[in-house]
Structure formats: C-alpha cells, structure tokens
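Why run this: before we spend reagent on co-expression, it is cheaper to look at a predicted model of the complex and decide which construct boundaries make sense. The entries below are exactly what would go into the expression plan.
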Amino acid sequence: MLQVEAIKAGYGTTQVLNGVTFVVETGKITTLIGANGAGKTTTLNCIAGVLQTTGGRITWQGREISSLSAREIVRIGIAMIPEGRHVFPQMTVRENLEMGAYVRSDTMQIKRDFEWVLTLFPKLKTRLTQMAGTLSGGEQQMLAVGRALMLNPELLLMDEPSMGLAPIVVQEVFEVIKEIERMGKTILLVEQNAALALSIAHTAYVIELGNIVLSGSGQSLLTNREVEKAYLGL
Amino acid sequence: MQYFLNGLPIGAIYAVVALSYSLIYTSSGVLNWSQGDMVMLGAYIGFTLTQVFHWSFTPALLASMVVVGLVGVIVQRLILKPLRERKAPPINVVIATLGVAIITRNIALAIWGPDAQVFPSPVGDKPLQLSMISVTHQDILVVCVGILVMAILQYFLKYTKEGKALRAVAQDRRAAVLMGVDTQKSDAVAFAASAALGASAGILVAPIFFVTFNMGAGIGLKGFVAAVIGGLGSIPGSIAGGFFLGTLESLAGGQISSGYRDAITFALLILVLWLKPSGLFITKSRQKV
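The model came back. Tokens follow.
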C-alpha cells in the first residue's frame, strides 16, 4: 500500500501541493483526476523521487520513501511512465525495453519479462529493431508502458497515458492498463480524461489547487454531480 | 589522389578529437574546451613512456589512454559535478573547462618544460612507394589505430550496458533517471571516454608534429571545427567531419598554399555556422509528438 500523507511541494517559491493525502491500495487501480495545474504531475514526481517534498510523508509498504532519490525509488520496484512518453528516440525498441531493466541483474528473469512484455504488446514484437522515434504516438505509449514493465515493478505510476492519442488508441491503452491490474500490479493513474479513468479505477481522488477535494470509488465519482459538471463536461 | 591520401591520417586524428567533443557534448550537454589539452597530455605521457622508460608503442598508447581517462573523471568530479549541483548556467561550465585547459597546460609546462620534444614514429617514417603515390608507415598506423579506436567506441556505445545508458542520458536525461541511471556516473564515463579518445589522438599526432605544452590549442580547435562541420553531438557526423577537414586541408595546402590552410578551415567553419549550423552531414530526424 502506498500512503501519501499531507505532502507539500513546489518549484522554487511557488507551492503547488498544499498537503495532499491519499492512499493507493495494493493490486488496484487508483486514479487522481483534476484540471491542468492542479498538482497531479507534481504529486507523481514526488512519489517517483524526481521532486523532493517539503513537508508530509510518503510510505510504501510501511517504509518511508519521502527522501529517496529517483534512482533509489526505481530500485525498490516503483516505475513511472512520464507524461509525453519520453521514449529514447534514437534507440531501437529492443534497446528501449532493455533500458527499462537497467537496474536489474537477474538475466534469466529479465528474459522472461521481455517475452511477457512482447506478448502483451504484439505490435512491438514486429518493430524490435526500429528506432523508437519513428513509431506512431500510440506505439510509443505502448513502448513506454512496456519499458516500465521491464522493471517488473510492484507499483506503476502513469502520467496522462491518453495524452495526444486518437480515441481508438486510448481505448487500447486502457485495455492494457486493466490487463496489468489483473496481473496483480498496483497502479496510480493520473488523467485528464476523467470519464475513462473513473470507469476503470477502483478508487478515485479529485485534486484541485494542490488539495484533495473529493474521493470515492471510481463508479461513485462518475455519477457525482460536481464531478460531472467540472470534469466530465456533461 | 596524393593530397587525398595525405589528408587521411590527419583526418583520422581530427575525427577522433571531434568525436571526443561530440561525446561529451551530446551526453552531458557540455562544450569541453579542455579536450585539446587531453590530446597534449596523451602525447606527453606517450612520449615519456616510450622515450624515457622505453616502453613499446601499444602499452604506451593504452597506458596513456587510461591515465588521461582518469584525468577526465577528475575534471568531471571536480568541475562539472559541483557546478551541476549548484545549477550553474551552461556558460559557467564552459568557462570552467577553459580554466581546466589553462591549468593543464601550465602543469605540463612545469613538468616537461617549454621545449618542443621530438616523438619519433614507432614504425619509422620511411615512405612506401606504390607506383604514383607514396604513404609512410606512420600514416598507415595513424589511420588504422584511429579507425580501431572509433570502432571500439561504437562497440561500447552500442553493445555494453554503460554505453547504452550513456546514449539514453544523451537522448532523454529525465527518462534515463526514471530508468534508474546514475547521471553523475554516466557523465564521468563520458568524460573518461572523451579524454581517452583525446589521448589516443595525442599519441598519433605526436610524430607528425612536435610535442609541446600548448599543442592542445591548435589540435583542439581543429577537432572542434571538424565536429561542428560534421554536426556537433553526432558520432557519424564527427567522423565524417574529421576526414572531410583533413582531406580539405591537405588539398588546400597542396593546391593553393599551406599559408592559407587555416584560413580556409575557419572560413568553412563560418560558412557552416551561417548556412547549416546543424552540420553538413546531419539530416535532422524529427521526433513524433
């Protein structure tokens, strides 16, 4: 279980998070929805160790991880798929996947995970020697997910996986996210596409101006009047 | 034809130096002005090992690359790392590397003195006459070792874990951190590899010119020009730029006048910067959004 307790963080003198508290249950999809600039990505960056918190604490499976660096976070099995995919454009699909397992040394298991990622994304299998920069947006998103899975992570942080993708491709990506959940991984999903995120999430939180303002099950928030008005555009 | 051949050895050396600029530039975003002085250090250490301690050529080359590689790591740890941690602007880092160049030059002056040293060719400089053209053994050695060094670098970048990490950092530093790559370590690897490349160029160029404490300024600048012509930050571009500049200088020196050689080189630099600043041999591939 990931527990985020009253974390504060910001950039320079601008405070973005004013005490964000929520819980991500093991083996479930939890989503964090909110408008642009509400602090969704900042929250993920704090968990991933990319940004240091200035207050509060983050614990993962009972261990405090607030002060760990990004490198140490990867080593305890937390992978992040950054917004905008960030695949390595001049490296092949295969090399990108290999980079996902950079901190691991269990060669046999890495090989097995490699095969498993390719069965999850059959399209990537036919493009192993192609440069990642030449893939379509959807394929790059699949590669970014596959690369993160190469860590064999316990917790997967996903930042806006639907961004910039055609609706049909978004559907595909969300099918994969559900598939990953079925395999027992814990997922924290940050999305602007609130309707879609809520439809697959076990638990959901709404963040506004650096504060959690609403929480509940994904289904209950889908029918919540305020959420409908503010985020679903109905 | 003869001019073209004459240009190959110096072209190979320019290519190696150009690569050393590109490697650091692409992986850590730093324009390292002490690269030329790594060439000088490599030449002096090679000179000392072969002439004073009577080592043979190959161990002297390897030892010199290792020692200068370590100097590269020291430069990264002492100069780049603290500046990075303080989030210094890039221009400060560039100026700091200029400082490294001056310090290195003066240390060399203190150790080896102001006199130019003669570094005799390890294979002799008797020319090999092949009907119309002639090449020296030294020329062949330079081209072969130069190509070998570049091939080893390619292998390192393509097939080793640290080499791949270096490319990953070069292409997307933030994503590389998310993979768990230690960017300080990859910076150190880049500085070490670049310095070692410079050292190999130094030993290769030493028998062609004299070894002096300020030889780094000239060869460093030429290597930089070659990198910019070919495309700073691009590995194939830098290699092409090096050979292109080498043959061009040889042609210009032979057909026009050796006095104009440098003028032509820098005129070309200005032209490239003006008309195609990304480099002559680079076709920029656009990343999909």
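Chain B has one domain: 2-215. The two ends of chain B are 47 Å apart (CA to CA). Bring this page to Monday's planning discussion.
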